[in-house]
Write a structure and sequence with these properties.
Structural class: alpha+beta
CATH class: Alpha Beta
Number of helices: 2
CATH architecture: Roll
Largest sheet: 4 strands, mixed
Strand content: 35-45%
Shape: elongated
Number of strands: 7
CATH superfamily: 2,3-Dihydroxybiphenyl 1,2-Dioxygenase, domain 1
Length: 112
């Protein structure tokens, strides 16, 4: 689900296989690898860990448009589009493993 969401946001799955997806954006210079919970190739102590407290955030040019495309593709937002006073416009989705992913647009703020 997260890979599809990133694809609609201009990034996506760079690699994947049975039980994992490697996500990235062409401009990011890094990837986030998300394994399926319970994946047997992981060490026993890591197989059932959740990503508690971790929110990968991806910068997009148009948060409202990205959210609309994701909703149109059937992705449910868990935090609807929100405008913060410091210029951050964001929304969040959550994948089946419980990983929350945020999409952020940075907007100009009024001069103080």
């Amino acid at each position: 689900m997260v890979g599809a969401a990133l694809g609609l946001a201009g990034g996506g799955a760079d690699a994947g296989g049975d039980g994992f997806v490697s996500l990235g954006h062409p401009d990011a210079g890094m990837n986030v690898v998300l394994p399926r919970r319970g994946l047997e190739v992981l060490p026993a102590g890591l197989r059932d860990q959740r990503a508690d407290g971790l929110i990968p955030a991806f910068t997009v040019d148009d948060a409202a448009g990205t959210e609309a495309r994701l909703r149109g593709a059937g992705v449910e937002t868990t935090l609807p589009l929100l405008d913060e006073p410091w210029g951050e416009r964001l929304f969040q989705v959550t994948d089946p493993n419980g990983v929350t992913v945020q999409f952020t647009e940075w907007r100009a703020t009024a001069a103080a």
